[in-house]
Each structure stands twice: as structure tokens, then as C-alpha cells.
Amino acid sequence: MPAWRGAKPLCALSRGTYWFRVMRSALGARRRDFSVVRDEGIGAAPWLEMGLGRMLVEAGIDPERDAVDIALIPGTLRLPVNIGVTAAEALTDDRTDGLSANGIGAELAVRHGVGAMLADLRRRDGPCHGGEALAPGGSDPMEERSRRPWRNRFVSSGIANLR
């Protein structure tokens, strides 16, 4: 993903994830049936494309072989943004076939009939223990790491002190 190239997660905000996998309802998606993602595009919130890719591999789906296009949900890098609302809008407007999004995005898509729940990772719907994935708490570009190494320690310890 070009916008994040060279970035490194600094720390995790939590162990466990509340992210959902939703596919366009017209595709006939059923809960835990990951075969529906073949030949489709799935939008993911920033950083979540890595976990989504891993989950698909563990479900027997090879994103490259099975032509699954995992990309950022259009519009999620502009500020201010509500990723859930933006994800649901992308599904509604046919800018993606599926999404990896938060509860707001999943609820809006399902409630409005444009999306069908594929996996609720809080409920361990995935092929692996996706609910145990780490949620990144921040990132630092490569050039900043070498120029200001103290910053990584400062951010990580600051988040740790919030717990």
C-alpha cells in the first residue's frame, strides 16, 4: 500500500479486534463462507489490509491466485473521516464489493440491505483467532525513525500509561 510504505507500527492499542468483514449482499454471502471473496474487491481501513490478507490465507483463499483485490476503502485517508460511515458509503456506491470495517460500517451496510455479514471477529467467526489480533496504535515513517528515535519510545510509553 503506497501511502503506508515504510511506516512501522509503534505499539498496539489493544489485543483483540472489533472489526467485521462484510460483503455485498447481492453476492449471496453467508456467514463464515469465505469463498465469496474470490474475484472480488475488498476495501479495508488503514492497517487492516494486513490482517484481512492473513485471515483469507488461513481460510484457504490466496488473494493473488483467487484474484481478491484488497485495497484501502476509498476516502479513508482524508481528514476528518469516519471510517465506518465511509466504508458503508463505498459499498453502497459500488466502489467496493466488500469491506473490513468497524461496527458502524458493518451495521450501516447490513441495516440498509447492501451488505451481508461474512465474519464478526469478536465472535471468532474467522478461520483463525482473528479476534486476538493486535490493533496498531500509531505509526512512524522510516525517515522519522532515524531522525528522531526518541519519538517512538515517547509514543509507546505514553499509550502504555493510558491503560
Protein model, in words:
The structure is a single chain. This protein is of the alpha/beta class and 163 residues long. It has a domain at 16-128: 3-Layer(aba) Sandwich (D-Maltodextrin-Binding Protein, domain 2), CATH 3.40.190.10. Helices cover 31% and strands 21% of the residues. It has helices at residues 48-58, 83-92, 103-111, 142-147, 149-162, and strands at 8-9, 12-15, 20-24, 41-44, 69-72, 98-101, 115-120, 134-136, 139-140. The strands form three sheets. Strands 5-4-6-3-7 form a five-stranded mixed β-sheet, sandwiched between helices. Strands 1-9 form a two-stranded antiparallel sheet. A two-stranded antiparallel sheet has the order 2-8. Strand 4 (41-44), helix 1 and strand 5 (69-72) form a beta-alpha-beta unit. Helix 2 (83-92) packs parallel to helix 3. It starts with 7 loop residues before the first strand and ends with a helix.
